[in-house]
């Protein structure tokens, strides 16, 4: 531990006691879980941000959309609205948040995309409006104990594993490491594609100190696609100005640096709300560093392209870098089998 972490440790003890007591209330029936007559899949983490929830939710959408009537429910971080909203053609990152907007742009013809900070009434409103929905993907909801999921997926970043972290404010954990016991499956995300079997076993051993013994542990990596241009006729050139608003941009920067000529990285905070000044700053950096293109993430792209300052964005050479999740060690079939068994098991309430 660093000196700062040692100084913050007493506050972390208090925070851990509060979160542990809250979990104890749920686990002993003093606070009630709500179940629904359809399966809810929860995707979340123990840490604050940066474990790859969005690409994993997209993976689940692709996996299940042809088999079930799907809806996603997110809190909608960074939006300028409150309450329950069903995404429609008027939706934007400002009204529903960047990640839900990304879901909507990709899958609006196949699923319902919704946001609501109060998850229980949001699910109730969703089912009243669309009773045909058969499955809900609950985004960033591992600590949301009010809904009892049929299947709980816990993500842990390979670069920042929860078993090496500490509770806020001494570390980045939202609750103690023992929270991993609630997971039905644990996915170690953002792994290098060439991770070795011996390292895999070491990581599983560390996770097993906090999870249930029988909980499956899988490993995924991120596959990057070819840059997609704002202007379809554009030609991707060598020198790249990278723009991102992520909790942990290091893996992205490493990839871009190894595949393109990265001249500068404008690294904003996670869920950054872009302004006209930011765009002017990008334009100046484009000229200052002699960059040919501006490369950004997909979730940043949806915000930039819908911003009220689109007149500034439109002439700039913007591209976004698409990503998808890939299971390692041939584990995709095992993951799907466990997931499908959980969501098709006949229950009155899940």
UniProtKB/TrEMBL annotation:
Superkingdom field: Bacteria
Pathway listed: Glycolipid biosynthesis; lipid IV(A) biosynthesis; lipid IV(A) from (3R)-3-hydroxytetradecanoyl-[acyl-carrier-protein] and UDP-N-acetyl-alpha-D-glucosamine: step 6/6
Catalytic activity, as annotated: a lipid A disaccharide + ATP = a lipid IVA + ADP + H(+)
InterPro entries given in the database record: LpxK, P-loop_NTPase
Enzyme class: transferase
Keyword vocabulary terms for this entry: ATP-binding, Kinase, Lipid A biosynthesis, Lipid biosynthesis, Lipid metabolism, Nucleotide-binding, Transferase
Assigned EC number: 2.7.1.130
Stored Pfam families: LpxK (PF02606)
Chain positions recorded as ATP binding sites: 47-54
Keyword Transferase listed: yes
Keyword Electron transport: no
Family annotation (PANTHER family): TETRAACYLDISACCHARIDE 4'-KINASE, TETRAACYLDISACCHARIDE 4'-KINASE, MITOCHONDRIAL-RELATED
Family from the record: Belongs to the LpxK family.
Functional note: Transfers the gamma-phosphate of ATP to the 4'-position of a tetraacyldisaccharide 1-phosphate intermediate (termed DS-1-P) to form tetraacyldisaccharide 1,4'-bis-phosphate (lipid IVA).
Protein name in the entry: Tetraacyldisaccharide 4'-kinase
């Amino acid at each position: 531990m660093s000196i700062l972490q040692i100084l913050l440790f007493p506050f972390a003890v208090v925070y851990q006691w509060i979160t542990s007591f809250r979990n104890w209330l749920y686990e002993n029936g003093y606070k009630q879980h709500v179940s629904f007559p359809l399966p809810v899949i929860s995707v979340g983490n123990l840490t604050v941000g940066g474990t790859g929830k969005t690409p994993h939710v997209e993976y689940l959408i692709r996996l299940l959309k042809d088999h079930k009537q799907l809806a996603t429910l997110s809190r909608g971080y960074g939006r300028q609205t409150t309450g329950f909203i069903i995404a429609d053609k008027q939706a934007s990152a400002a009204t529903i948040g960047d990640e839900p907007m990304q879901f909507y742009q990709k899958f609006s013809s196949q699923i319902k995309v919704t946001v609501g900070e109060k998850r229980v009434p949001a699910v109730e409103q969703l089912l009243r409006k669309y009773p045909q929905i058969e499955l809900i993907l609950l985004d960033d909801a591992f600590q949301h104990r009010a809904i009892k999921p049929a299947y709980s997926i816990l993500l842990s970043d390979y670069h920042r594993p929860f078993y090496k972290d500490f509770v806020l404010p001494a570390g980045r954990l939202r609750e103690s490491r023992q929270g991993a016991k609630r997971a039905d499956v644990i996915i170690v995300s953002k792994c290098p594609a060439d991770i070795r079997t011996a390292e895999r076993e070491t990581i599983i051993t560390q996770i097993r100190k906090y999870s249930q013994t029988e909980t499956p542990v899988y490993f995924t990596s991120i596959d990057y696609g070819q840059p997609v241009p704002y202007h379809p006729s554009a030609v991707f050139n060598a020198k790249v100005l990278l723009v991102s608003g992520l909790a942990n941009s290091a893996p992205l920067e490493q990839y871009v640096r190894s595949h393109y000529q990265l001249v500068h990285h404008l690294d904003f905070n996670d869920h950054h709300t872009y302004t006209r000044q930011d765009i002017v700053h990008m334009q100046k950096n484009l000229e200052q560093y002699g960059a040919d293109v501006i490369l950004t993430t997909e979730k940043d792209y949806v915000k930039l392209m819908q911003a009220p300052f689109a007149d500034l964005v439109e002439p700039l050479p913007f591209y976004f870098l698409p990503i998808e999740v890939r299971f390692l060690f041939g584990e995709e079939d095992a993951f799907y089998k466990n997931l499908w068994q959980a969501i098709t098991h006949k229950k009155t309430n899940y």
